[in-house]
């Protein structure tokens, strides 16, 4: 799989009369993992929706390998770019295998039948997410972490060069958060998939991302490697929080220690 680049140029977007993104431009580096962070309602999810073509911008455009995504045929875009929204809901009673198989729909022509390539892609996706043994189980009977792995498996079966994920660790306990982020890192490192994800947990974003995008008030505050972006000043400006940023003793990446009114040593 070859890495693909994504470029947003001068995006203005919102909902109805409410503008959320204000002249946002962003270059997503091919083959890298990018994490978007910021306070609630700063425009993170809106930016991801525009990048995935779920939301059409009022101004500006998004280019995938130099092609404007809003002018690409839907099937062709779905073969190149996958999107996993927040808290997706599976149809009642659907099995893991059935849901993951839906990732192959973009590769099915009007009269094209299920092929050996489709079978292999689904099997590979189930194996990569450690869901093979649960293939016949109903999705709604699984744990939160398992369900999230099923959705990621569906995205893997789609076999896109770019994968966008909106808060893939929301509502998961820390063990399952690490499990999902490790899986995405494996995907990036073994397949070269370009990954863009919105994350709430700053320390996990800094640990797992090659690049951070910090947003504030519908604009991009800073973009760069975690060591460049993740500073006490950024945390103060973007989140309104006083903190100390130290080196993660495990990875050496930046790690934030929040300072609260009752957090000081006594």
Automatic annotation (TrEMBL):
Keywords: ATP-binding, Cell membrane, Ion transport, Iron, Iron transport, Membrane, Nucleotide-binding, Transport. GO terms for molecular function: ATP binding. SUPFAM superfamilies: P-loop containing nucleoside triphosphate hydrolases (SSF52540). CDD domains: ABC_Iron-Siderophores_B12_Hemin (cd03214). It is found in: Cell membrane. It is a peripheral membrane protein. This is ABC transporter ATP-binding protein. It comes from Halomonas colorata. The lineage of its organism: Bacteria, Pseudomonadati, Pseudomonadota, Gammaproteobacteria, Oceanospirillales.
